[in-house]
Amino acid sequence: MILKEALPKIITGSLPGSNAEKMIQRRAVATPGAIRCVYPCVIKKAAGAMIEDVDGNIFLDWVGGVGVLNVGHAHPEIIAAVKAQADNYFHSMFNIVTHEGYVSLAEKMNEIVPVAGRVKKTFFANSGAEANENAVKIAKAFTKRPNIIVFSGAFHGRTALTMAMTAKKAYAKGMGPFPDGIYRAEYPYLYRKPGNMTDSQAISYYIEKLERVFDEASPAESVAAIILEPLQGEGGFIPAPFEWVKRLREICNENGILLIADEIQTGFGRTGRLFASNYWQEGGFAPDIITTAKSIAAGIPVSAITARAEIMDSVPGGVIGGTFGGNALACAAALKVIEIIERDKLCERSMEIGAKCRAVFAGWQEKYEVVGDVRGLGSMLGIEFIKDKSTRTPAPALVSALVAECARQGLLIENAGTYGNVIRCLWPLVITDEQLDTGLTIFRQAIEKCTAPGT
């Protein structure tokens, strides 16, 4: 069977295998320990949702490069597109020489990205953090204001600015002082809302918490932008309630504040729409700026910033740009990725996968005391694990055990969340039904093993 249709199979008995162990030892000597990895897998080749390691073990990948591989590993059409571009040239800095791939990709992004406004413009950077940092620069240029508002649970990157924007300071330990003008409001985490509030009451509560920032941190007239993830990634796969976003949009409109959607992890079909902001657009509250990266080019580094033309055209010359932004190979890959997503109806496939898995996970929620919450959009689903349903105490040790046990059985899963107690699902959208079913079985068996008496 070819690799993209294979099922997980561990042939070495224990993990890592001998060849992988040698490479992991080399890694420890040659690379910083801060870039840690708990997975006993050293990749040799991959296809679709499957990875073969250097010892011949086959793993089912539910991490997908942390949301990078929506169209799967090593898609042959993307390989062909990159090879064809490589035959002509690798790189031409866009400030110096115009190349068609950059322009074509910008045109396509302007067509499909659901920001407010009829005429749009896009430019490219290299990473999600760069995209978010540039979005902030653009918002400040347009509004002539100094401050931004971010949220609890947010992850926006690891540059100096985006470390300050990111909520969890484990990602920024010892890195201060941080840039000024960044103020934090509370994100609506409905599973852990205060007291006995209804969801509607909680949304009003979180809006009031945001408005207090204007009184206690930065006046509204000094706020350039509010930036949020439509569905928090590192924060625990927590969707922003649509009613809350709608009210956020109204607050921005009333106060001349730009609304920025960080779609680094949610974009390109993951949530059942091409972008999570498509849901917002359908409700009449589209954002002003959208940042994207990760699955945009199937693993080749590139990110994008899209906004309406009047916002983009407010930026002074020289303030935005960069040597490698919109690299020709990356643009070729991204154009093919978008073509594949649209042609192969991967947004629809995302909804199918999400509906199936949400039903399975809901069954687990009823059956297992440790499954506290199931949430998400499309196939971007998170499962929050707790010690018991009465206290909802987070269970990060259980999640760590689940990650390790699943890996031993050939399934790669990843944790998330403020408390480290959420499993996030980022499988490639090209995963087969048989692979999905096999992964669900491995996951369920791991839950039962890791929660059995005496474990």
Explain this structure.
The chain has helices at residues 18-30, 64-67, 76-86, 100-112, 128-143, 160-165, 199-216, 242-255, 277-282, 309-312, 328-343, 346-367, 396-408, 433-450; strands at residues 43-47, 50-53, 58-61, 120-125, 147-151, 182-185, 223-228, 231-232, 238-239, 258-262, 289-292, 303-308, 371-377, 380-385, 411-412, 414-416, 422-424. The protein is built from 14 helices and 17 strands. The chain has two domains: 3-61 and 346-450, Aspartate Aminotransferase, domain 1 (Alpha-Beta Complex); 80-343, Type I PLP-dependent aspartate aminotransferase-like (Major domain) (Aspartate Aminotransferase, domain 2, 3-Layer(aba) Sandwich). A seven-stranded mixed beta sheet has the order 4-12-11-10-7-5-6, sandwiched between helices. It has a four-stranded mixed beta sheet with strand order 1-2-3-15. 38% of the residues lie in helices and 16% in strands. The protein is an alpha/beta fold and 455 residues long. The radius of gyration is 22 Å and the shape is globular. The model has no long low-confidence stretch (mean pLDDT 97). A hairpin with a 5-residue loop joins strand 8 (231-232) and strand 9 (238-239). It starts with 17 loop residues before the first helix and ends in a 5-residue tail after the last helix.
